[in-house]
Write a structure and sequence with these properties.
CATH superfamily: Vaccinia Virus protein VP39
Order of helices and strands: HHHEHEHEHHEHEHHEEHE
Distance between the termini: 47 Å
Radius of gyration: 18 Å
Strand content: 5-15%
Structural class: alpha/beta
Low-confidence stretches: none
Number of domains: 1
Shape: globular
Number of helices: 11
Number of strands: 8
CATH architecture: 3-Layer(aba) Sandwich
CATH topology: Rossmann fold
Mean pLDDT: 91
Amino acid sequence: MSESPDVSALNTSRRYNEWVGGKDHTGVERESTKTILTVLPNMLAAAKEGRAVVMRAVRDLVAECGIRQILDIGAGQPMKPNVHEVAQRIDPACRVVYVDNDPLVGVHHRGTVMSRREGRAEFQAGDLLNADEILAGDQVKEVFDLGRPVAVLLASVLHLIEDDELAYAAVRRLRESLPPGSYLMIVHGTFDTLPEETRRAVRALIATGKHGAYRARSRAEIERFVDGLELLEPGIVSSVEWRPDPAKPPQTSVADAMCYVVVAKLP
């Protein structure tokens, strides 16, 4: 008999779910959030902008770039709207595989994510640090035609990998393994836009080890992930600057968004 997931320890996926308005979080995540907000009072708005830009990118990848296969690595708890809902609203035949290494995320996805008759939406357990295992996984092989382009979403997951060598190696392996014409989307936290005093306060908070791993990277460090690739306009910019929706103005500033976004096409 398998053990139930431990919900007593801090879980960054559940905390992120709280930040973007979800319900799948517990007291330990809420307490962590309260502490973080004392240093970064705009964190919730920043997280919501990070989520909103993913939906805009999915929309454009399907509607403008012709993508019909999307691999969401580090998907986190299912939310409304979710990636497959946005994609299949444009083309019901779109196929999406959600990947996460959190067993509880898998339980929630399998219980709430339903495939359409024309397309598919499935969950597969996996870790970004094991890219080969993800691409060789049963759901990926069943749902995708890996002879055709795939859009890979790395939304708010790379900054959870503190080791730079591991992070760059994981993305490099994905780039080497994806079909020609595939796309890579990255949403990544940064401290570039923060005043030095705030940076010091945030780093001190991270150093306590009580709030989970976090590796903010500079614009130049994030650019390394997509070096040599064709960047979709407007390139590497803040989450509030990447193709904003005129009908839904940003809820925070570039400085307080603390986030870079880029979508790149593989040769």
